[in-house]
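As promised in the previous annual report, we have extended the structural survey to additional targets. Below is the entry for glucose-6-phosphate isomerase.
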Amino acid sequence: MTKLTFPFKVDIDFATGHVTAPAKVLTRRLSDLQGLFMDSAAYEQMLSRENPVLYDVYEIQVPEEAGHLASCTTVIYPGKVGKEYFFTKGHFHTIEETAEIYTCLRGEGYLLMMTRDGRSRAIKMTPGVSAYIPPYWAHRTLNCGGEPFVFYGVWPADAGHDYAAILDKGFKQRVMEVDGKPAVTE
Ligand SMILES: O=P(O)(O)OC[C@H]1O[C@H](O)[C@H](O)[C@@H](O)[C@@H]1O
Ligand SMILES: [Fe+2]
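The corresponding structure token record, generated without further manual editing, is:
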């Protein structure tokens, strides 16, 4: 750590996921997730009509250095591309031996995780569920409910985001609507 930083607080609205300053919002729209949904025809068709916001991330900014903890809320809005629920891009950490904790504040979703050697796990997220993502596991979240899915995440501030493998090969598991209900597919 290079210099002393000072204690601070933010206020989190559990219903909307909104975080007060100095948090910064990062908005991802449908067009930012090119090539990631299974049904590419449904994706192109939706994008030709609209470019909805799939999720907002409210990042509580700290120095990106070892020793600090970064955190954010993520709000994934309800919706689907074809039969597949709106999800985050998903990433490995650049420093792969770093973990993360997600705690659900509102709504209903899944946390999907996978390793580079082909293992996968899914955890159902509902308010009060706090999930541990160990080192080496890529992670993606999705909203399988009818209201915003809101969760709070904490991770080592120097961990970094590595999207390359996900953009290249996608995620092993998907969550699709089957007979009106979410189903996790391999
Ligand atoms: O970066 P994405 O894979 O699009 O996911 C969006 C966000 O989801 C979580 O909240 C993570 O804690 C964030 O680090 C990440 O940026
Ligand atoms: Fe992460």
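The chain has a mean pLDDT of 96. The first strand starts at residue 24 and ends at 29. These points will be discussed at the next consortium meeting with the crystallography subgroup.
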